[in-house]
Amino acid sequence: MSGRTGFLAVSSQLSSQLPIAEFHEWYEDEHIPLRLNHLPEFLAGARFKVHSRRTRNQSKNEDEKVEGLSWLALYFVDSPSVFSAPDYTSLRTNRSEREKGILSRIEVMTRLTGEVIGVWSGNEERTSGFQPGRPSGSIVTHGLSVRCVGLNAMDEIKPWIQQRIANRQEMNDGWVRTHLICVLESGTSHFGINARVKDESAMAYFVVHGKDLQLAHSLRTDLS
Question: pLDDT tens for residues 134-154?
Answer without folding.
Answer: 556 788 898 887 655 544 566
